[in-house]
Please model this.
Amino acid sequence: MRVFATTPAEYRKVILATNIAKTSVTIPGIKYVIDPGLVKARSYDPKQGLESLTVVPISKAQALQR
Model:
């Protein structure tokens, strides 16, 4: 996987990750992490009778785990 490949000194590596990767993968050499504190959560709209993904702030428990 390219995420584990070394990066030349004159480059910066940017990694975008899902919730699964954040909790189960350790990537060596990480210096900074930017976490917007948001997650896509499944929600149900009874008026439309549909489920959808909405962007919502993470819970305190999720923030501590990250």
Notes: The two ends are 23 Å apart (CA to CA).
